[in-house]
UniProtKB/TrEMBL annotation:
Family label: Belongs to the cytochrome P450 family.
PROSITE patterns: CYTOCHROME_P450 (PS00086)
PANTHER family assigned: BIOTIN BIOSYNTHESIS CYTOCHROME P450 (PTHR46696:SF4), P450, PUTATIVE (EUROFUNG)-RELATED (PTHR46696)
Originating species: Nocardioides bruguierae
Swiss-Prot/TrEMBL keywords: Heme, Iron, Metal-binding, Monooxygenase, Oxidoreductase
InterPro entries according to UniProt: Cyt_P450, Cyt_P450_B, Cyt_P450_CS, Cyt_P450_sf
Protein name per Swiss-Prot or TrEMBL: Cytochrome P450
GO BP: any one term: cholesterol catabolic process
GO molecular function: cholest-4-en-3-one 26-monooxygenase activity; heme binding; iron ion binding; steroid hydroxylase activity
Amino acid sequence: MHLSPLRTTPTTAPVLSWATRGPRAARAALAALPSPRAELRRTVRWATQHGLAAAVLRRAAADGDLQGLMVTRTAGSLEAPYEIARDIRESASLHRSRYAWTTADHAVVREVLAHPDLRSGFPEPERGPVARLAAWAGEPDRLGPLTPPSLLVTDGADHTRYRRLVTRVFSARAVEALRARTQEVAAQLAADLPRHVDARGEVDLVEAYCAPLPVTVICEILGVPAEERERVLAFGQAAAPSLDLGLSWAQMRRVEVALDDFRTWLVGHLEHLREHPGDDLMSRLVAARDEETGEGLSQDELLATAGLVLAAGFETTVNLLSNGLVLLTGHPAARAALAADPDLWGNAVDEVLRFDPPVLLTGRAAATATEVAGQQVRAGEMISAVLAGANRDPAVFTDPDTFDVTRANARDHVSFSGGRHYCLGAALARMEGEVGLRTLLETHPDLVLSSDRRRRPTRILRGWATLPARL
């Protein structure tokens, strides 16, 4: 077992400062640290959730398996996902890889996302040593976007009830009401960029613009007071990798610590919203009641929804903005078209989502033996739907490898998933993308990105870690 060295976090900082606080405070802080048993369980969780999957996929990739290549060889690469997706699509509309099915065919991806016999998330492991270890190490109360009762991994009647309430609050009208505030935030951030220019005359747009814009909007949604927003930004940055596959042990530990800290903070915040409701969407969700049953969301469902808004809404929108900036600054014809016809901005955001989406792929598991794209899929088998590949399917998109903001069917992309798990934040992401990209590029029309920009190393999430630029 490997235990990482102690790091200064909101949990460990009190221990590291014991000399200035006295031995009693140090003992209390030490008592609050995870026990060796808790760390052992965390290590086993990592092994069963990330380590084993990563090792298996690396081995498959070494043997030329297309799904293994898709997951392990595309991290940090701009072109590799689309080259491998083309190979998958040309192999079969539904390709049988070593450990699962996979598809980059637009029609089949849509079928998979809407199929009644396919469930979100990963299948339950077969009974055996790994399954027993995973059950022993699991923590049912852990907050996370891929942990029940998150909407991402909830199906059936619970999903219908749950989504109905959340959809009523996070409606298109409610999101549109946030547009004016998002515009204010974007304009202020864009105006402040010169203050962040470093000694080389450059500013990192991810740090100074792409990240603070969505987290500020998320804080508005969650009803977070201004003095708490830096804290929520830290939570969001630390928790965002929870959507990825194959995290290192240290990465998973940082994510879990951040989510645990966020849960602790969120319990108190929800109690405050119950006693002092505001005009924010989270206050409305706390008060929402089902018209048929009169019941609202449970405490765990409210916590899971807030966690999903933070983890999924933060990282994916940061990636949308950074991907969009690279594409638009690299295509002068697109910039000229938008300047000539500003009504194209909405379509331009959809073309960004099609051409370089924030999420590479998603997965479904067969709840029962069924048929998909003419193939017999057994109960428990996994199907990987390569969203980025479907977005470049030449059967749907003419010249799919060309970035074209005037593309008539750009909105036919599948970057927001589909079926009953279609992204609840789609309208919000489109609005933030349009406002964020347009405001920045209109405020700084001569902006030039540096060539030493760096992509994120994540496997499933696709975006830029740094975007140094001259204004």
